[in-house]
Amino acid sequence: MVTDKGQEQTWSYYYLERCCQRVAETYGREEWSEWTNGDYILLSRILFRKTRVQISPNTLKRIFGKIKTDARYYPQKATRDALAAYAGFGDWDQLVEAVAEEESLSEVEEPLIEEGLHQNVPEQNESPVPKRSVKRTLLWTGMSLLILLVLWAGWKISQGSTPKGTPSLICKNPLGENPHSAIFTVQTPHERADDYSLDFGDGKRTSVNPNTTVYNHYYEVPGRYQAVLIQGNEPLDSTTVYLPTQGWAATAYMMYDTSRVYPIDVPALFTGGKRTINTQELSQAGIDTNRTFFVEFTNAQQTGISGDNFELQTHLITTPDRTGIRCSQVDVRIMGESSNHMFVVTKPGCVYWSKLNFSEKGWSGRQEDLSFLGADFRRGGTLRLLVKNQQARLYINDRQVFESTYTHPLQQIYGISIRFSGVGTVSSLNLKDLNTGKMFRGSF
């Protein structure tokens, strides 16, 4: 087959465009020109889970044309293989063959073979360019060059508003013991003084100076956290920090005292009949039990249980009436690979403080009616969360109170946390995978 480097590049970009179309169809949003930064962050996570190949959100933006460059970005073979695999093909070569067959690109009308011209050999592992007639080849080449010219002109016009830097957030040491000092490197467009901030995922946030690249954060409570680089209210990039535990751990802290937490050393917690933390143990740890305080029980570990097909059942007793505690609330959080399920149950008169999250979907009692999350557990009660194929149902005292579907999968569960205002008791807890029947090792 006779070809030249320019023609090969034209065909390479043609197949890349078709690959992007198939990836967008698989992702569920075919108009990728309308994608936000959140879409690229989510797609990056999904691609890694599906293919185990890490493609950063910024690389995806280059591939799909969100970030403009002098010439259309063309990714390496491993990246193209991963995109093709996500779209349902074995690898890039299979995608090329399928596109060529579907669009009749391999039909031969008049082979382009002339004496004195040599046949170019495709690069190793590359799919051969389909044979074309002279007429059809010139037509496609001309159209492609015209498209590239238009894109280049549009890029030049937009240069006045396009940042030269590429926003990114990386944690150098994402896995650690509790406590953990995480080191983040941040890249923002230095030429612009936009409102950047860094949300560490544990309720703390800091503003970002475009001229500062390294940020440290001190994590004090075990669990899995999603740190996010934000511009205004729009997420630009994210990374995960994970502090696993050996079995169940207890941590206490006081309201309005954000500078300290108090690890509580309790032997045989939830394994030897110990189901709660008493006020004497809290006082010995440094908690002023005459003030408003919280006790959090955490079991953070890789479970092998799907966060999109599981059942959680637990029996709880919230704090009795005491100084500094009015709402007697309990928060339950299921930590997934890339997001969480979470709900806050309070006394009926305190549903203002209630919250509910299923992956990317969230509701707050401050803006919405969450009166169904009002329940008095001071004498005990049961909570049940049933998730099947990304459809979640929440039960309180054996009555279904809420149901919703969500889009972004949690994938594997990485832990559970239960937080009480004041002293609380966990009488029992069972978590199992609905597909495999696997039980959580921290069940009791």
TrEMBL record:
<keyword id="KW-1133">Transmembrane helix</keyword>
<feature type="transmembrane region" description="Helical">
    <location>
        <begin position="137"/>
        <end position="155"/>
    </location>
</feature>
<dbReference type="InterPro" id="IPR035986">
    <property type="entry name" value="PKD_dom_sf"/>
</dbReference>
<keyword id="KW-0812">Transmembrane</keyword>
<protein>
    <recommendedName>
        <fullName>PKD domain-containing protein</fullName>
    </recommendedName>
</protein>
<keyword id="KW-0472">Membrane</keyword>
